[in-house]
């Protein structure tokens, strides 16, 4: 047993799942395990298609190869990241639950290898200025306010487009983002400029009306792309010119990491630093020049 644990530690939680051996087969099927998983609070997302594929098979007859084949069959055009997220992870959760109930035995399930995604450079303050200027010139005041809200509060695009006027407090310069990605409401502060732009949009609005008038992020990105084309600047989708821009520009202003994370609603330092934050292009020279301010000579 200790050997299994040591091996699991080597692979890591995201790389493999180890289920203890020597559990007698029970005849339970994957569908039964999935239903039990959901009944006991497990996540049901993505499971419907997996159950349709594996449902009638007994747990004792399901092996890692079968689960990987299932992933490829359900998402033939999907990237490895998609296969891991939408097929392997849900199936793995069901198998873990089944083991905890004593319904199946040992299994090691390795994830598909994922390539490091090429990420766009976050929007600089110069880019934002050019974008906002063009958006206002084109009469897209709502798009300008939407992008500024994301870029100065760290709001995700889905949170921003779901924002209703009843969740906006212009007197306190704040908005309440409901049911964020972490399933917790999040209060965000507004800059004076964003509050003023929202005030201009509020005329005759009802409390349940969407603040920005969009219902899908694809519509937002399509509008952003057209404005970028007219402004002659590189296209940066909503997440890049919004949440990613917020993180990097705030750090460039000298705000400490913990404050930026708190203001933008990040709870994981690893995700914040590993995914969102980009080193400065001239990082080596900047650090060297900063150290160069101090002279280490013989005199004290």
Description:
52% of the residues lie in helices and 3% in strands. Strand 1 (168-169) and strand 2 (174-177) form a beta hairpin. Mean pLDDT is 87; it is low at 1-15 and 17-22. Strands 1-2-3 form a 3-stranded antiparallel β-sheet, with no helix packed on it. The protein has 300 residues and is mainly alpha-helical. Helix 4 crosses helix 5.
The average pLDDT is 87
Overall strand count: 3
Order of helices and strands: HHHHHHHHEEEHHHHHH
Uncertain residue segments: 1-15, 17-22
Count of DSSP H/I helices: 14
Helical content band: 40-55%
Give the amount of beta strand, in percent: under 5%
Q: Spatial order of the strands in the main sheet?
A: 1-2-3
Give a short account of the largest sheet: 3 strands, antiparallel
Separation, N- and C-terminal Cα atoms: 61 Å
Tell me the structural class.
Answer: mainly alpha
Morphology: globular
Radius of gyration, whole Å: 25 Å
